[in-house]
TrEMBL record:
GO molecular function: DNA binding
Protein name as it appears in the record: Helix-turn-helix domain-containing protein
Entries under InterPro entries matching the protein: HTH_17 (IPR041657), SinI_DNA-bd (IPR010093)
Organism: Metallumcola ferriviriculae
Domain Helix-turn-helix: 28-75
Length: 83
């Protein structure tokens, strides 16, 4: 039997970096891809984009999140948690 254990912030950061690496060849991400990277629901990801919490661009009817912007946003979140 495997004991339940709490995931540390370091493990979560490494896991998120691994997910980011999967999308490294893309310049723009879809909102569902962002949700997968952040390990949140698709609806929550759309909410964060809608509220301009996660930077995004609109291409016609499509919403895209620049990978560079997502990385910067994540770094800001990590830095604010440390302080």
């Amino acid at each position: 039997m495997i004991a339940d254990r709490k995931i540390t912030s370091t493990e979560e950061k490494n896991s998120n970096e691994t997910l980011l690496a999967l999308f490294e060849d893309k310049v723009l991400l879809t909102v569902p891809e962002v949700a997968k990277i952040l390990r949140i629901g698709r609806t929550k990801a759309y909410e964060l984009v809608r509220d301009d919490i996660i930077p995004s661009i609109r291409l016609g009817k499509h919403i895209r999140v620049p990978l560079v912007s997502l990385k910067k946003w994540l770094q800001i979140q990590v830095n604010s948690d440390i302080q």
